[in-house]
Write a structure and sequence with these properties.
Blueprint lengths: L2 E3 L6 E4 L3 H11 L3 E2 L8 E5 L13 H6 E6 L2 H5 L3 E8 H5 L8 E8 L8 E7 L7 E12 L10 E4 L7 E4 L2 E6 L1 H4 L5 E6 L3 E3 L8 E4 L4 E4 L4 E12 L11 E7 L2 E7 L10 E7 L15 E2 L2 E5 L5 E7 L6 E6 L5 E6 L6 E3 L6 E7 L4 E6 L7 E5 L4
Parallel strand pairs: 9-17, 18-23
Antiparallel strand pairs: 1-22, 2-17, 2-21, 3-14, 4-5, 4-9, 5-29, 6-7, 7-8, 8-9, 9-10, 11-12, 12-13, 13-17, 14-17, 15-16, 18-19, 19-20, 20-22, 23-24, 24-25, 25-26, 27-28, 28-29
Length: about 375
């Protein structure tokens, strides 16, 4: 597999301009905000000491030989088929270095096979070196609903029925890939959540979501915390060929600039996926200068020459002829590194069982990955220098 250039000007993204309206609804809830460091981390993962004996890595020598750290989820998260882990990001994506003394990761999940679609959630995980068990908390992602838009005439929130295919933590925002538009014949995009406004709700009922008039309380299907959506970017496409399936996202560092990188999942009967980069504003944490009346053109675009079934991405110096790392699934599990300028690069396979999102921590050189399959789920790191 190699990468070939595409005209970046063909791909544009537009800010829907909902920031102020969504923030006003969040304020109207009157709910207490909680900092990430104040969350009650009520779930326990287990540090993986012998990766060769974990089902995600068993018989997969390329990854076992390079394994540096990792954990298995608490049993109910490891085995559930109702929640599927997809995206992976970390505090290092947004700050280059995490908070002193703490190392945080975040994994996005989407809901399946439930009587009621609960949408998406994110796990905030403290992976500080030496910690065992690994403590984390699952938080429901919600979209604010104004009083005038809900039958209750009360400010509330709703689930987001999206795939949560990829995640990027940048400054105070969590970006989550949203492929729903593409699947409906329209361009896709990304949803944006405010990390400074994690809200605490009443966790006593798992059958209700949003404000309950009977109890004058907010519920979230039994979750104690919700993370509200505050923004959305949607691709502007002139024709069908330009429309991107926003399947996964990651971060690129090129000198002092930062770019949100997105990629497409495609199957064997579809054209190979495309990779597109969009400039991030270091000061605001948002996409650079995008607005409802001023779409942002992509910084860079590449097409994969052969590959389908891509699931996660990370790049270094992409805008300066650097390197892209990609995960691949569907019985051909692999980690691939490819030069942005073209060329075959290297392929490590079989990699972990159904690898998904990627994130990188510069201070440790850890390239983290999350796996998907129920019963063999793990979050683990290898040294990027080894791949």
């Amino acid at each position: 597999m190699g990468l070939r250039p595409l005209p970046s000007g063909a791909f544009r993204i537009q800010d829907e301009g909902i920031w102020a309206a969504k923030a006003a609804v969040v304020d109207a809830w009157g709910l207490p905000s909680r900092a990430l460091t104040d969350l009650d981390l009520n779930r326990r993962g287990t540090v993986i000491q012998e990766p060769e004996n974990h089902p995600a890595f068993e018989g997969r020598h390329d990854v076992v030989e390079r394994f540096r750290a990792g954990f298995a989820w608490q049993a109910d998260d490891a085995g559930t088929t109702r929640w599927i882990p997809q995206g992976l990001t970390g505090e290092a994506d947004g700050t280059d270095e995490g908070e002193a003394g703490r190392t945080w990761l975040a994994v996005s999940w989407h809901n399946e096979h439930d009587d009621v679609d609960k949408g998406m959630r994110v796990s905030f995980i403290d992976v500080t070196a030496g910690a065992n068990p690994i403590l984390y908390r699952n938080v429901l992602l919600v979209t604010p609903v104004a009083a005038g838009d809900d039958p209750s005439t009360h400010a509330t929130f709703a689930a987001i029925p999206a795939h949560a295919g990829g995640a990027l933590w940048f400054r105070n925002y969590l970006y989550v890939a949203d492929s729903r538009g593409f699947d409906g014949g329209r361009p896709g995009g990304v949803l944006v959540f405010d990390m400074t406004n994690i809200k605490e709700v009443d966790p006593s009922r798992d059958d209700l979501l949003g404000w309950s008039a009977a109890d004058d309380a907010y519920y979230a299907f039994g979750y104690r915390y919700v993370l509200p959506q505050v923004g959305r970017y949607v691709q502007v496409a002139r024709d069908v060929a330009e429309r991107l399936r926003w399947s996964f996202i990651g971060l690129d560092r090129t000198n002092t600039t930062r770019n949100l990188m997105m990629g497409e999942y495609t199957t064997s009967d579809e054209a190979p996926g495309r990779l597109v980069w969009w400039s991030l504003d270091e000061r605001t944490g948002r996409l650079t200068a995008a607005s409802p009346d001023r779409p942002l053109s992509a910084s860079l675009a590449r097409a994969c020459s052969h590959e389908q079934f891509l699931q996660g991405c990370h790049s270094q110096d992409a805008l300066a002829d650097g390197t892209v790392w990609l995960t691949r699934t569907s019985g051909r599990d692999a980690l691939c590194d490819r030069p942005v300028t073209g060329g075959e690069g290297a392929t490590f396979q079989p990699w972990a069982d159904q690898p998904e999102g990627l994130t990188y921590a510069p201070s440790s050189d850890n390239l983290w990955c999350v796996t998907e399959r129920a019963g063999s789920r793990a979050v683990f790191a290898v040294k990027r220098a080894s791949v």
